[in-house]
Amino acid sequence: MDALIVMDVQLHDPRLPLLRALDRPSVLIGFPARPAGLTCIDLDFKAAGELCVERLAGLGHRVVALVGSPPEVYIRGTAFAQRVVEGFTAAADRGGLASSVHPCEASPAAARRVAEQLLREQPALTGVVVHDEPILEPLIDAFEQLGLRVPVDLSVTAICPDELAENVRVPVTSVAIPSTEVGARAVELLMRKLGGTDVPEATLLAPRLTERASTAPRTLTP
């Protein structure tokens, strides 16, 4: 083994002391809380969360929710999920929006429970950010079964691959997860390190939002 690519990076990842001590180069796909001395690359998930909220705010939505990864993802401190929450919350606070965060198990039944909870706790909800790929379409179905049409009554944005966002029954406005680009650039960084070339410690890919059919201006009730 000449080098390592490390994935599923946690904020306080127990593998970091070993990586720093090894005499072999490594690249992390993800950013721990203290990345100094490491080579890390990823989508800027904090900026992605911000971008989704800013798009909803720009359409006039004032009450928003993040339906996020399963609870265990947050419990183990997975970095990308925590960054999305940071960005979502920061953008909502900055814009004066009412907001909440709801981890969600990856099942249609869990999506239904979260939709019911949101409408019970935030009856004025008109904007949702989804960062949990398996429940994207089940969540839209659940909201519509509960009487909210997308995008007439509820605008939905997501952080997910373009292929998924394009093929949902209601195509979803989304920030793409550039997995292929991240993987390829991680290998490039690693090969440069193996060749003795200096590389940047941090490479953050800027998020790109694509508008689709799931978002619309907030409808003002008389």
Describe this structure in words.
The protein is an alpha/beta fold and 222 residues long. The protein has eight helices and ten strands. The strands form two sheets. The protein has a six-stranded mixed β-sheet, covered by helices on one side. Strands 1-2-3-9 form a four-stranded parallel β-sheet, with helices on one face. Helix 1 links the parallel strand 1 and strand 2 (26-29). Helix 2 (45-58) packs parallel to helix 4 (79-95) and helix 5 crosses helix 6. The longest helix is centred in the middle third of the chain and has 17 residues, at 79-95. The N and C termini lie far apart (67 Å).
Concise synopsis of the structure shown:
With 222 residues, this protein is an alpha/beta fold. The protein is 40% helix and 18% strand. Helix 2 (45-58) runs parallel beside helix 4 and helix 5 packs across helix 6.
